[in-house]
Design brief:
heterodimer, A: alpha/beta, Rossmann fold, 2 domains, 7-stranded mixed beta sheet, 5-stranded mixed beta sheet, B: alpha/beta, 5-stranded parallel beta sheet, two-stranded antiparallel ribbon, 10 helices, 39% helix, binds thiamine diphosphate, binds magnesium ion
Chain lengths: 331, 289
Amino acid sequence: MTYPLADNAYGDDVTLEPTRAGYGRGLRAAGEANPAVVGLCADLTESTQMHLFKEAFPERFIQIGIAEQNLITVASGLAHAGKIPFTSSYAAFSPGRSWEQIKTTVCLNEQPVKIIGSHAGLYTGADGATHQMLEDIALMRVLPHMVVVVPGDSIEAEKATRAIAENGQPSYLRLAREKTPVFSTEESPFEIGKAYVLREGYDVTLIGTGTMTHKLLLVAAKLATEGLNAEVIHAPTIKPLDEATILDSVRKTGRVVTAEEAQIAGGLGGAVAELLGEKLPTPLHRIGMRDHFGESGAQADLFDHFGLSPGKLTPSIKQFIDQTPKYHQGF
Amino acid sequence: MQGGQLTLTQLGQKANEIRKSIISMLERAGSGHSAGSLGTADIFTALYFDIMNHRPEDPNWDGRDLLFLSNGHIAPVLYATMAHTGYFPLEELNTLRQFGSRLQGHPERTRLPGIEQTSGPLGEGLGQAAGYAYALQYLDNQPHRFVYTMMGDGELDEGNIWESAMFAGKYKLSQLIAFVDRNNIQIDGSTDDVMPLEDLRGKWESFGWHVQEIDGHNIESIIDAASMARAITTKPSVIIAHTIPGKGVDFMEYDYKWHGMPPNHDQAKDALKKLRTLDGKINHEGEAW
Ligand SMILES: Cc1ncc(C[n+]2csc(CCOP(=O)(O)OP(=O)(O)O)c2C)c(N)n1
Ligand SMILES: [Mg+2]
């Protein structure tokens, strides 16, 4: 089945909404569906969009104060008592500050605590490096039992929230603060552990996660006008990674690009490099943050500066294609 | 810079100038934190123009007193005060939060001389201040230097604060002087609703600290409390400064919604007018700084 994209996915009129908005709606829906769902927040109720849940279920909302480590340990206790705790903060602080608590009290304990890291990546306004969480994918991906989901848009974030509410596992959901393009539709599939081919091609496989996927769609459209056919894969689940979908594509294209607004070390780029290194060594170009911090600035300036805007992605990907012979196993 | 150069009236005027700069820079930046920045302008004025021994022209002077700003979101008051004391040109305040600026949304040590430590994530300033104070007291034998830190009251929710408080109490770090901006607000509402802090005085006392409570808008009280804190040689000191969030701009005062919002153009105009005519003393119109 071809993945249904929004009619205006490639247009200038593409709908814009922050992924955290989808989370807010998804959590309220998860709360309606299951009375075991409880919401915990660390003094960021509205900006993480947990206020929708709080308004609907005031008796199931718990204010922790500015205490991210306690946020996780209390959630673990609630999970042990049979609840499904969603914990909301900025990703910089949870999992940023609460990592060891997550490792021990959530993952080692195998408690189905949901860690929601909002304001992740570069879409954090002008707050600067301290608030731009770029290491969260790596931090969460190395934890046994942890599921890691990075929704591509607000519609998918809503579906992902519903899905992790019922998966019975420790789960991390990465969200962005700013409005980003909504490229999927209500009918588009979402399943934890699945990656989706949004666009077929044979010259290169472009794998995106989170808000970068839409930029890759624009890049692929641009490349098509130059006679290059890029396959675009959207990987909203970083862990477990959909190895089959990625390997099938790479066998066809022989070249791979990954894109994320995160550190490539340990991020999507790291995950794909590990997969290809073990199962199908293939030339790989990882786009993202290369061992540096972010900084304050307008969104457009930042994405341009770090090479993550479509205008910067296209030449960099084109150069990679030009300089990299197609590699096929057995060459 | 050394104490006693400006009269109390002049210090009050400085605080007002700093508030005007805060409003202007926040409006221009289009994002940032108004309430805590305005609410602590009197304390920052007292610190930088009177209490602290420092040299704006030589930020790394090895005889300096230090300020560790723990609640980094009130960066605008720190930047404005530093500019007014001469660390950098006032015009640079215009670059707050812009790409490439030394004035990052939250202060970064490696970008701007005079910033002692990077902050923004709450709860980390007190421990760093305590580490420095420990070095002064136990390792480097420098009894005449003092380490100041500023914390928000909501920030006191963080466990790291109390770990640091216990450490400072254990080692009787008497060169460590902490301010708490007791403005009773944080992001989700009043501190009482989000996470009650009282008995706050009792908490600090039980951790081995000397505690003073003052009116955080009375510059004389701020200076006196700091003198008292320096005179206490057996304990670390905390000064719980009761402040009004948004102080000086009536439509921001007491309202937690202004924690993380900048004024828009009209609001900034209104605010600057109010600050110019503070106490019925009409200042000249024109640029905020
Ligand atoms: C570790 C951490 N958690 C959460 C935040 C988000 N945050 C920024 S300011 C703030 C409220 C702080 O309250 P307070 O210290 O009283 O400052 P005020 O609102 O009075 O300026 C929060 C929760 C943060 N910066 N760091
Ligand atoms: Mg406060």
